[in-house]
């Protein structure tokens, strides 16, 4: 079973921001597929990953982020 975590993400306002945010998220061990919905400011991350590690990494990269939910798929 895999997990999908959702995060509120602010600061990725263009294609460059999305690419940079995805690179930050994919740098966390256990991360699988990453999708970012710019219209809703939501990042979805598949994989067995610590949500707080993702939030911390995004904040260190100057994004505003918070963990919304994690669900088993």
TrEMBL record:
Which residue range or ranges hold the HMA domain? 3-66
Which GO terms fall under molecular function for this chain's record? metal ion binding
Mention any Pfam family matching this sequence: HMA
Q: Which residues form the signal peptide?
A: none
SUPFAM superfamilies given in the database record: HMA, heavy metal-associated domain
| Name of the protein in its database record | Heavy-metal-associated domain-containing protein
Give the organism, scientific name: Sedimenticola thiotaurini
């Amino acid at each position: 079973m895999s997990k999908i975590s959702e995060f509120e993400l602010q600061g990725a306002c263009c294609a460059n921001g999305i690419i940079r945010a995805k690179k930050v998220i994919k740098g966390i061990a256990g991360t699988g597929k990453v999708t970012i919905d710019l219209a809703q400011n939501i990042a979805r991350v598949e994989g067995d990953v610590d949500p707080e590690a993702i939030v911390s990494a995004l904040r260190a990269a100057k994004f505003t982020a918070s963990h919304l939910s994690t669900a088993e798929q």
